[in-house]
Design goal:
The complex is a heterodimer of chains A (113) and B (115). By secondary structure, chain A is mainly β. Chain A has no helices and 11 strands. Classes of the chains: A mainly beta (113), B mainly beta (115).
Chain lengths: 113, 115
């Protein structure tokens, strides 16, 4: 099983659509979970952290299910500017430094007018 | 807004040559990292650096790699004898070390092409 697994997409959606991304991770010792965004040929940027209680930031909602080792991201009312690759990221845990992050390969989103 | 800066943005080198990639982390950050991303692949952790020493390194970070903080601002990655498979985008990142924020600030990357 891959350490962090995501549907590669691409997801092609019209503006205003709601889109959901899923991610599974294999390391049960991971303690921190994130969604990063990466534009084409650019650096990753933190979109949001993911907490067990679920959390929302504007149009973005993230959920974590530790028992299933499953993370999700929901984007509502998608904008053209949301077009990017969304990276599911977990920390390595078991004493690994907090910056030792395991990235998924990413899910590509393309929002069309 | 403070940012991580990297130079060069693109370097082309011959196999077997030494390469030094440079980074200036955000000034009040204490933790520094190098990641790499081979074209079309995932971002991979190479090494973390804190208090002037390596705190953790991955299997990728073998003896041909080294890092250094030669002064108070620069953080460098040296690849001693480059191989074709070292061709990738190398990202420097820094963080302030706040537990569980997980927010690493990445530079724009240095693209290394080994011929």
């Amino acid at each position: 099983r891959k350490e962090v697994e995501q549907d590669p997409g691409p997801f092609n959606v019209p503006e205003g659509a709601t889109v959901a991304f899923n991610c599974t991770y294999s390391n049960s010792a991971s303690q921190s979970f994130f969604w990063y965004r990466q534009d084409c040929r650019k650096e990753p940027k933190l979109l949001m952290s993911v907490y067990s209680s679920g959390n929302e930031d504007g149009r973005f909602t993230a959920q974590l299910n530790r028992a299933s080792q499953y993370i999700s991201l929901l984007i509502r009312d998608s904008k053209l500017s949301d077009s990017a690759t969304y990276l599911c990221v977990v920390n390595r845990g078991y004493g690994g430094s907090q910056g030792n992050l395991i990235f998924g390969k990413g899910t590509k989103l393309s929002v069309k007018p | 807004e403070p940012e991580v800066t990297q130079t060069p943005s693109h370097q082309v080198t011959q196999m077997g040559q030494e390469v030094i990639l440079r980074c200036v982390p955000i000034s009040n950050h204490l933790y520094f990292y190098w990641y790499r991303q081979i074209l079309g692949q995932k971002v991979e952790f190479l090494v973390s650096f804190y208090n002037n020493e390596i705190s953790e390194k991955s299997e990728i970070f073998d003896d041909q790699f080294s890092v250094e903080r030669p002064d108070g601002s620069n953080f460098t990655l040296k690849i001693r004898s480059t191989k074709l498979e070292d061709s990738a985008m190398y990202f420097c990142a820094s963080s302030d070390g706040q537990a569980n924020t997980g927010e690493l600030f990445f530079g724009e990357g240095s693209r290394l092409t080994v011929l």
